[in-house]
Amino acid sequence: MSKKIAKVLKMELPGGEAKPGPKLASAGINMAKFCTDFNAKSADRRGEIVPVIITAYEDKSCDFVIKTSPVAPLLLKAAGIQKGSATGSKSVVGHITRAQLKEIAEYKLPDLNANDIEAAMKIVEGSARNMGIVVDD
User: Fold this and answer.
1) Cβ pair 102, 121 in contact under 8 A
2) Average pLDDT score over residue span 4-26
3) 124, exposed or middle or buried, with CB in 10 Å at 0-12, 13-18, 19+?
4) What span, in angstroms and rounded, lies between the C-alpha atoms of 40 and 18?
5) Is pLDDT of 21 > 70?
6) Beta strand pairing status for 62-66 and 49-57?
7) Is 133 exposed, middle or buried (0-12, 13-18, 19+ CB in 10 A)?
8) What are the strands of the beta sheet with 62-66, ordered from one edge?
9) C-alpha distances in angstroms, 84 versus 103, 126, 130, 133?
10) Average pLDDT of span 87-93
11) Confidence (pTM)
């Protein structure tokens, strides 16, 4: 017999540094066990924001799936800037190379709605353009 699902939550937590708190309390899970497990699995991504999908069950247990980091922080890190353009593609605030773009697209490919690396690169390039980051050839 399968467990009965109580709630499914999508959260963004700091990698390797999740702490019990109101975000997790709303899930109705054993927070100490979740934090220990999550911190162990995401220890290599310390300092990054880590998206996670938590499936909470009625017996207070849970399962979670860790996703890849959001595109925006990856682009900012690659361009070496603090924040993107406030006016989108109208003003340029940074540059990345085609190789950096491909590296980010390869990393994000499992979580993107793309069948191949070329489509993933177009998605990431669109995000970069909207942030005021130009992709140099």
Assistant:
1) yes
2) 86
3) buried
4) 10
5) yes
6) antiparallel
7) buried
8) 5-14, 49-57, 62-66
9) 19, 13, 8, 7
10) 86
11) 0.80
